TrEMBL record:
<dbReference type="InterPro" id="IPR013786">
    <property type="entry name" value="AcylCoA_DH/ox_N"/>
</dbReference>
<protein>
    <submittedName>
        <fullName>Acyl-CoA dehydrogenase</fullName>
    </submittedName>
</protein>
<feature type="domain" description="Acyl-CoA dehydrogenase/oxidase N-terminal">
    <location>
        <begin position="26"/>
        <end position="107"/>
    </location>
</feature>
<dbReference type="InterPro" id="IPR006091">
    <property type="entry name" value="Acyl-CoA_Oxase/DH_mid-dom"/>
</dbReference>
<dbReference type="Pfam" id="PF02770">
    <property type="entry name" value="Acyl-CoA_dh_M"/>
</dbReference>
<dbReference type="Pfam" id="PF00441">
    <property type="entry name" value="Acyl-CoA_dh_1"/>
</dbReference>
<keyword id="KW-0274">FAD</keyword>
<feature type="domain" description="Acyl-CoA oxidase/dehydrogenase middle">
    <location>
        <begin position="111"/>
        <end position="205"/>
    </location>
</feature>
<dbReference type="Pfam" id="PF02771">
    <property type="entry name" value="Acyl-CoA_dh_N"/>
</dbReference>
<keyword id="KW-0560">Oxidoreductase</keyword>
<dbReference type="InterPro" id="IPR037069">
    <property type="entry name" value="AcylCoA_DH/ox_N_sf"/>
</dbReference>
<feature type="domain" description="Acyl-CoA dehydrogenase/oxidase C-terminal">
    <location>
        <begin position="217"/>
        <end position="374"/>
    </location>
</feature>
<keyword id="KW-0285">Flavoprotein</keyword>
<comment type="similarity">
    <text>Belongs to the acyl-CoA dehydrogenase family.</text>
</comment>
<dbReference type="InterPro" id="IPR009075">
    <property type="entry name" value="AcylCo_DH/oxidase_C"/>
</dbReference>
<dbReference type="InterPro" id="IPR046373">
    <property type="entry name" value="Acyl-CoA_Oxase/DH_mid-dom_sf"/>
</dbReference>
<dbReference type="InterPro" id="IPR036250">
    <property type="entry name" value="AcylCo_DH-like_C"/>
</dbReference>
Amino acid sequence: MTDAAELRRRTRALLDAHPPATTDRRDFLRARFDAGLAWVHYPQGLGGLGAPRSLQAVVDAELAAAGAPDNDPRRIGIGLGMAAPTILQYGTDEQRRRLLRPLWTGEEVWCQLFSEPGAGSDLAALGTRAVREGEDWIVNGQKVWTSSAHLARWAILIARTDPDVPKHRGITYFVCDMTDPGVEVRPLRQITGEAEFNEVFLTDVRIPDSRRLGAIGDGWRVAQTTLNNERVAIGGTPVPREGGMIGKVAATWRERPELRTHDLHQRLLGLWVEAEVARLTGVRLRQQLAAGQPGPEGAGMKLGFARLNQEISGLEVELLGEEGLLYDDWTLRRPELVDFTGRDAGYRYLRSKGNSIEGGTSEVLLNIVAERVLGLPAEPRTDKDVAWKDLAR
Ligand SMILES: Cc1cc2nc3c(=O)[nH]c(=O)nc-3n(C[C@H](O)[C@H](O)[C@H](O)COP(=O)(O)OP(=O)(O)OC[C@H]3O[C@@H](n4cnc5c(N)ncnc54)[C@H](O)[C@@H]3O)c2cc1C
């Protein structure tokens, strides 16, 4: 039985064998993974010990107190939050052993090749084709808004393998090597001036069948695991009280009394309370997660996160007046990590606009909450039984 005391003992043994002050960062992370202290709820041999997920905090606290390096989770969010749980659930033993360790240590960055120019909210309409040729699949198509593709070694990819069946049924899920010939990554500049994301063109990319995740034609079901985890990864990250976006504006409020007005005070207090409610809801969601996979409730969390980020960063720009309109840098940058609350007020305001689009738009998440959480009648879906090849595009 791996309880908190046992985890503390193992963490101290790791620190004794690999003192953070004298151990190379990568070696320390590899040793932590091999000791089962990376994500304690994962199985033994895959970075975990099969312990309750809630006990991860025990390990993290011990390691932080000892000044141990972490795996820079903001840089590898797609791998940790989305690819890993999907590989764990649907991968073969060989895939899990090959892919999870460098994913967790950050030696291999992951990206997500899902959205296409004609398939975002209606993701199941996607047109990228994968055609079987012997032991390989030949993939052709275009993906878009692919965050971190310029840094990535691997991608989770969904492609159409059977155009003759309705759209949800003819999709298969693959792991794509971003260094393979035929994968072309081009930057897309966004409202902040940076290019976090990319267009990705796939031309005759050869993916071995051994890199398929899940059964042929079952890709939509596999993708649900990724998408449910994505919403929790975007909206459900733990924050301390008065952390995140509300912490930024509250700090400005305290440090700059000359900016205060009664009206802004009332609005700030209202948003502070809402941010605290959202934070506590996140704590509850993570407790549910500790007991199993995330369900559609994650959609509600992500909805609130996007709305609050936009309102709070908007209030900060108003509070700062003319100063809030200044923007530090419009040169095209390729950031290594995405920090919603980083840089200045102008950046935070502009970046938060993407929060209600990425990981599913707020309108689509409202539909999910309505149908799958509240049990309201579903939207009419006239194309449900029509072969994908016969759909209007
Ligand atoms: C910062 C950022 C990073 C991203 N990173 C990635 C990534 O790494 N990988 C990836 O695959 N994708 C990524 N995306 C893409 C993202 O998932 C899509 O943009 C999103 O799903 C919406 O799709 P779309 O852009 O095609 O808009 P559309 O689906 O065309 O939607 C247009 C508008 O119509 C509304 N709408 C559509 N359908 C409905 C409906 N049924 N009911 C009500 N309203 C509806 C939408 O809410 C929206 O307002 C990223 C997006 C952003 C902004």
